[in-house]
Amino acid sequence: MMNKELQLCGEANYETVALIAKAVSGMYHLTALPAVDIDMVELAVVEIGNNAVEHAYEERAGHQLWAGFKCNDNRVTITISDCGSSMPKEIVEELQQRDIPELDPDDPSTWNTSGRGFGIINQVMDEVLYYQEDGKNHFRMIKHVTP
C-alpha cells in the first residue's frame, strides 16, 4: 500500500465534524485495516471533533477545525486540531485512562449519552495523544495495521 494523506479544514460545527468523519471513513477504505473497524474509527473522529466544538470553542461560531489523515502499511494516524481552549494536563491524563461506563438497565443514571466519548476512543484506537503546538490543540489517534 502506498502512503496516503488527506488534510481538511472547515468551520468548527457539528456538520463539519460529520463531513470530516465521512471523509476519514472513505480514506480508511483505502487501507489494509479490517472493514469492521471503519465505523468505530469514524465514531472516534466524531467524538474528538464534537468535543472540540463543544468544549474548546463552547459552540461559538467563526472558528476553525482541522483534520489530518495519514496511512501507510503500518498504521493509520488521524489528527483533529483546534485553536480553542486547551485542556489541563490532569484532565487529559484522566481521560486517557477512561473506560466506557457500564450500563445498568435498572439505573437510569447510567444511561447518559455524554461522558462516553473518551472511553470509546480509548477502546477503539491503539494510541491517543493530546498536545499543543503552534497555538493549536491536537488530538492524534493511531490505529495499527495488523496483516
Tags for this model:
Heat Shock Protein 90; about 25% strand; five-stranded antiparallel sheet; alpha+beta; about 150 residues; 5 strands; about 35% helix; single chain
State the major sheet: 5 strands, antiparallel
Strand order of the largest sheet: 1-2-3-5-4
**CATH C-level:** Alpha Beta
Q: What's the CATH topology name? A: Heat Shock Protein 90
Compute the separation of the termini in Å: 12 Å
Mean model confidence by pLDDT = 82
- Name the poorly predicted regions: none
Count of DSSP H/I helices: 4
Structural class: alpha+beta
Rg, Cα atoms, Å: 15 Å
**What's the total number of strands?**
5
Can you tell me the CATH superfamily?
Histidine kinase-like ATPase, C-terminal domain
Q: What global shape is seen?
A: globular
Percentage of β-strand residues: 25-35%
Helix content: 25-40%
Order of helices and strands: EHHEEHHEE
The number of domains is 1
What is the architecture at the second tier of CATH? 2-Layer Sandwich
Q: What does this 3D model show about the protein?
A:
With 147 residues, the chain is an alpha+beta fold. It has a single domain, classed as Heat Shock Protein 90. Helix content is 34%, strand content 27%. It contains four helices and five strands. The chain has helices at 14-28, 38-56, 89-96, 117-124; strands at residues 4-11, 64-71, 75-82, 127-133, 136-144. Strands 1-2-3-5-4 form a five-stranded antiparallel β-sheet. A hairpin with a 2-residue loop joins strand 4 (127-133) and strand 5 (136-144). Helix 1 (14-28) packs antiparallel against helix 2 (38-56) and helix 2 packs antiparallel against helix 4 (117-124). The longest helix has 19 residues, at 38-56. The mean pLDDT is 82.
